[in-house]
Each structure stands twice: as structure tokens, then as C-alpha cells.
Design brief:
By secondary structure, the protein is α/β, with parallel strands linked by helices. It folds into 2 domains: about 50 residues, no CATH class; about 190 residues, Dimethylsulfoxide Reductase, domain 2, CATH 3.40.228.10. Helices cover about 50% and strands about 10% of the residues.
Amino acid sequence: MGDSFERISWEQALAEIAGKVRAIVEKHGPHSLAYAGEARQYSEPLIRGLGSQNYYNSMAQEITGIFWVNGHTLGGPSASPDYQHTDMLLVIGCNPYMSGMMHQTRLFLNRFSKDPDKRLVVIDPRLSETARLANIHLPLRPGTDALLDRAMIAFILQEGWHNKDYIAQHVSGLDKILPWFSDFNARAALEVCQLDYGRVREVCHMFATRKSSLHSALGIEMGRHSTVTSYLETILLAICGRIGVPGGNIFRSSLTQAGPPPDEAAA
């Protein structure tokens, strides 16, 4: 009381909080409540269970591009690498050795990079801690991520390395965007990216022909041209047949249902 604190049990604390929340709902209605924060698998069911739809998180300022892309291309959920079964991991726009990526990230990356049957490829302007471990590091010019992605897609399509069977079964609308890549000068694009032509071609061939996956993060999702870059990454995965397959980028289960694609008018 007053200017001091008194220790109470968790049971009492939770009961008091629940009682105050319920009193607010009864007096002002469910829309008087809002949740701000993460831990979505718990917070979203809570706020919806109370009858409110007012939910706010960091997506108001970050990763809105990839959320929009995933909504319109994958139906809502994101597809993350199947780390345990992939043979090639392409890391773009992040330094997971320092920021984390999965359980025991550092142990995983050390083992993965030293495995003669695996390939760790990092695309990052900086020689980060993750890039130091990589089998291949592509130090692209900052801000040219989208241009590199377009060049890689053009490489794969022009060389005929794309997965035609997968595309026929699982991909729609590709014919509408093929002109973006059919006559694209990948060599000139890589000069702008300040990358070696042969090295990028090698990475493209590996990604298209191996059991590959892609992990990108805030360096892309909060960077220049983030939405188009995320879209191009999805195209890259799709033409190589790496979405929803073992060792590729897979859909993981969640305690909450994925929301509908973002509204076109709102976007």
C-alpha cells in the first residue's frame, strides 16, 4: 500500500488482474481493451477471447512487406527453412550467429558449415560472424538486394535450372512475370551489385539443384525495397521447388491460425 510493495502469491496476482480486466469489459465493452506486444501465440487468443480485435505489435513498423507478400503468395503463413534436413542454407540480410535463428543457433551453424555435404551461403555486405563461417560469402553492395535476387532468378530461368514439375503442380501466375527475367542482363546487374559473375552463378546452380532453403530477416525486411525483395525471394523459392518440401522452406504449426491475406485496398 502507499509507497511500498507487499509480496503476494501468483494465484492472488492473477485473480486480481483478471478481475480488473473483467470489470473494464463489463463497464466499457470489449473494445476498450487492446494488446500491444509480441508472444502472439498466447496474447492473440487472450484478447480475442475477451471479445476485442485491438491487437498491436512491431509489424506496424517492421516486416510489413514480407507479411503482405506471404499473404498474397502463400495464403498468410510464412515458410521457414527445414534446418534439420536442408543441404544448402542461403542466409540473406541477417547475422544469426549473433542474433539467433533457432535453438542452439551457433552450434548448428558451426556443424553445418563444417559438414562436407552441406553448404552455407551468406549474402551480406559485411563480413559478419555468420559470413566468416560460410562456405561462400557474397559481399554485395548495400541496397542492391532486389537487383541480386532478380539476377539470380534470371540465371536459373535462362539456364533451364528451374523445377518444371514443381511449377506445373504448385505454382500459378508465373507466365505473367516471366518477361521480367527472360531478357534480363544478369551480368550487368552483378556489376552494379559488385559481385563476381561466376561465384553468383555457382550459388544459383547449387540453390536450384540441391536440397536448399532460404533464411532472411530484418536486413531485408526493414531495408530499402523490402517488399519487392521479399517477393523476389518467394519467386526464387517457388521456381526452384523449395516451398513446402522436405529440406526446403516449410510451414510450421502454430497455436493460432494464420490470418487472411492483407486487404488489397489497405496495402
